[in-house]
Amino acid sequence: MKSIRRLSFIGLGIMLVLTSCTSIKYLQIADGSKSDGTLTLVYEYGAFEKPVVQWDQAKQNATDKCKSWGYKGAEFFDVGVTNCIGYNGYGNCIRWRVIYKCQCTN
C-alpha cells in the first residue's frame, strides 16, 4: 500500500513538471518618455508558466509608439530585468515581472 501511495505522489510530481504550461507573452508598454525617446515594456508570468515572448509584436508596438512621437524606429536593449512580485507562504517567489527598456531611434 505504501508503494502505491509513493508512486501516486511521484506521478503527481511528474505531472506537475510536465504540465508547466508554455504561455505566450506580449510585452506591454508600461512607461515612456517622449523627450528622452525611451520606453519601458513589461510582461509577467507565474511559477508554472514557461513564457514565450512575442518579440516581433513587441518591436512593432514599440516602433509604432516611437513613430507617434516623431522618431523613425525603436531598438531594444539586450537584457531584461526580472523582479519577483509574488511570494508563497514559504517565502518562495511564485510570480515575476520582466522589464525591458527600448530606445527610440532616428
Written account of the structure:
- This protein is of the alpha+beta class.
- It has helices at 2-18, 55-68, and strands at residues 21-25, 28-33, 38-46, 49-53, 73-76, 81-87, 93-105.
- β6 and β7 form a beta hairpin.
- The chain starts with a helix and ends with a strand.
- The relative contact order is 0.21.
Strand and helix map with partners:
Elements: H1 2-18, E1 21-25, E2 28-33, E3 38-46, E4 49-53, H2 55-68, E5 73-76, E6 81-87, E7 93-105
Parallel strand pairs: 1-4
Antiparallel strand pairs: 2-3, 3-7, 5-7, 6-7
Mean pLDDT: 88
Q: What is the β-strand count?
A: 7
Q: For the terminal residues, how far apart are their CA atoms? A: 70 Å
- Ranges where pLDDT stays below 50 over 5 or more residues in a row are none
| Residue share in helix | 25-40%
The geometry reads as elongated
DSSP helical segment count: 2
Helix/strand order = HEEEEHEEE
What structural class do helix, strand and pairing data support? alpha+beta
User: Hey, roughly how much beta strand do the residues contain?
Assistant: over 45%
Rg to the nearest angstrom? 20 Å
Largest pleated sheet: 5 strands, antiparallel
Briefly say what this structure is:
By secondary structure, the protein is α+β, with helices and mostly antiparallel strands.
Feature tags:
five-stranded antiparallel β-sheet, 106 residues, elongated, alpha+beta, two-stranded parallel sheet
